[in-house]
Predict the structure.
Amino acid sequence: MKYHVFTRHRAGDDMIHAGTVQADSDRLARIYAHRTYDEEDWEFMGVVREEHLLEVDEQPIVGGRAR
Amino acid sequence: MSAEAENAWPEAAVDYVKAIADTKLLLGQRYGEWMLKGPNLEDDISGASNAQDEIGQVRQLFRLLTQQGVEDDWLESSRSAEEYANASILDEEAENWPTFIVQVALADRAAWLLLDAIVHDDFTGMVQKMGEDEYFHLEHHDARLETLAEDQPEAVEAALERYFPGILAFIGPSSYGSSEDPLVSAGFTDRSVAEIRGAFHEHYEELFAGTDVSVPPLEEDVPDPEAWDETRRRSGEGHVEPSVVEQLQGISNQEYVIE
């Protein structure tokens, strides 16, 4: 599975997309992210499974005619 | 009493720390080998980080050992393979990935439990810092073992059976309960070998609960106290390959040592 790694320097900062890791489980993804992207003194680091990202795109209007 | 004598460890404690340090030295070697052959780039990076952590910890432990009168040259570069006191399960390179993960997982966790039991003032702060490194090693192993238990339970179980006697010998004999363990009696550690064995075994029983992997039983007579070598924390005469000792001691590149 592909996971996206997000970090921030200080509380309140916007998240930075640091990169990605491939992992077989959430537990492994946390370790891989730390090992791969911990060169800086992050206040926060988190991982999100790619499949959990919600795509923001144009959708057909409910009740209308599909174009 | 001089300050030096006042701070002297019991003799058994010097052997205990030497065995932990040598196990970490060999872990550094095995992690270094791993960083070149892990199944994913992420595993390679972790192998490299783990190797670096272990070698850093060895430096600190060797420094304390030299303060206790152990010769620095002997520790670093003039020992024979038979004089290393590493956990015997690290003597040989594992032949495949599941075996390798079991090998380093058992050795790293056992070394950590022995280190974490030390309460002597010389280790205050240092063990806590080492624990920050070790969290990521042990968490990585367990996460990997969880997925391997799903995918290749026979390979994991075979490696556990192969390495359990050796790692129990490294932790120590079951006869070292809280009243019998000489280092607990001396106040150097506050957790007996028998208690550490129980915690170690329980951890893997919990980790593999609900999987097809059976953890070997905690055999009371392994190691046999009569055959157990307290200095090298093993039974028998085995040792790491001389070619690995050459790498550990930097023999082939000795002419480039910066004086």
The first strand of chain A starts at residue 2 and ends at 8.
